[in-house]
Amino acid sequence: MGVNKNNNKTLADIRAVSSVSSPWERGNTLFLRNLSQPVLVSRGRKSTEFFTEDSKLYVTPQEQALLDQGVPLDRSVKRWDNVSSRIVNRYQQYRPGKNDMLTNALLKRFHNLQAIAKEPGQWMGRLTLPQLWNASMVAAVLIGMVSMTFIYQYLGQGASAKTNESTPIHLAAIDSKTDSKNEVAFADKAFDDETYAYFSRTIKTLEETKKDEFEARIREMVKGYPIAEMVPYIVKQDKLVAAFLISIAKKESGWGEHVPVLNGRDCFNYWGYRGIRKLMGTGGHTCFDSREDAVETVAKRISFLVSSKKLNTPEKMIIWKCGSDCNATGGQAAARKWISDVDLYFKKLNK
Question: Whole-model pTM?
Answer without folding.
Answer: 0.45
